């Protein structure tokens, strides 16, 4: 299958920008749909990229924008839901997928790469996992001879603009004491560029049609280990207090009512399932998983850590 044009939903986000930058190195026309074109003009310097203002929740608009596209990449997801239409888990993770598949068929699109998440399951404990699982089920059910689907299940994704390590960094900078819910929850953080490379490598690879690919880094960590690591990079001495299960559950129920929903009961439920691969697809794709410790110091480290990291880069002959 030869891919000459790709439409990315969620292309203005953390992972989407990385995928767009990778695809820009190929002779591929990239269309990124966004509700707010002016807010995302920083994407325009990416070669071969067209930034189009469109409402992806409008079936007619979606079909119109997919016309002439060879492939679609769907990255749209929310971690916490709101009450307004279009901001609920079902709206984003399920109904949008249904609408997207219909639009692909009407527009003649032949290839779909769909972002799910590790732990996604219709039987999962959280609404996030259940709706992500249902969306993935719908996407894979649409796979056939005339419409090739591949889904991806990454663990938490890290990188300079991530909302995982950076969130904890922000908390640690503000609070001398950090009560930590579900401290023993396990994760296998995967580097954003490795995720983008997996999407790039899968685009035309027929052996991956109809498959689900788990994506993870080279190591697993407990949540408390990750938070302590971030505190060390920031050179902050903080009291990180691991909360037992009952208090973790209570914290979710209380904090979900705070502005910005820093932590919710549904987040708590998601951590009841280890976010760890059973079969990491990155090595199968020829991608060597990048270690967290090789990247995080460069964007989280304090002054001393940054200096040491720059020294390491110079010694490795990669400074410049």
From TrEMBL:
Residues 6-205 form the NAD-dependent epimerase/dehydratase domain. It holds the Pfam family Epimerase. Gene3D superfamilies: NAD(P)-binding Rossmann-like Domain. SUPFAM superfamilies: NAD(P)-binding Rossmann-fold domains. This is Complex I NDUFA9 subunit family protein. It comes from Spiribacter pallidus.
């Amino acid at each position: 299958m030869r891919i000459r044009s790709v439409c990315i939903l969620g292309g203005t986000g953390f992972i989407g920008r990385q995928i767009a930058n990778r695809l820009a190195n190929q002779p591929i026309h990239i269309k990124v749909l966004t509700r707010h074109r002016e807010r995302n003009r920083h994407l325009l310097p990416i070669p071969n990229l067209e930034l189009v203002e469109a409402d992806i929740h409008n079936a007619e608009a979606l079909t119109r924008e997919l016309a002439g596209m060879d492939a679609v990449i769907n990255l749209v997801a929310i971690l916490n839901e709101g009450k307004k239409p279009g901001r609920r888990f079902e709206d984003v993770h399920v109904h949008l997928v249904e609408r997207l598949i219909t639009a692909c068929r009407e527009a003649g699109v032949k290839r779909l790469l769909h972002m799910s998440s590790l732990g996604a399951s219709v039987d999962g404990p959280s609404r996030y996992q259940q709706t992500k699982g249902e969306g993935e089920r719908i996407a894979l059910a649409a796979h056939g001879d005339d419409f090739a689907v591949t889904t991806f299940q990454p663990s938490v994704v890290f990188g300079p603009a991530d909302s995982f390590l950076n969130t904890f960094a922000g908390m640690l900078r503000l609070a001398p004491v950090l009560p930590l819910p579900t401290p023993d929850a396990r994760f296998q953080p995967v580097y954003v560029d490795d995720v983008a490379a997996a999407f790039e490598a899968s685009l035309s690879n027929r052996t991956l049609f109809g498959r689900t690919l788990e994506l993870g880094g080279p190591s697993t960590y407990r949540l408390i280990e990750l938070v302590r690591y971030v505190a060390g990079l920031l050179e902050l001495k903080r009291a990180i207090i691991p909360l037992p299960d009952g208090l973790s559950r209570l914290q979710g129920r209380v904090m979900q009512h705070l502005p910005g929903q820093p932590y919710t009961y549904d987040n708590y439920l998601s951590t009841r399932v280890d976010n760890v691969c059973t079969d990491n697809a990155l090595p199968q794709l020829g991608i060597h998983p990048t270690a967290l410790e090789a990247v995080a110091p460069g964007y989280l480290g304090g002054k001393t850590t940054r200096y040491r990291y720059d020294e390491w880069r110079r010694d490795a002959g990669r400074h410049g």
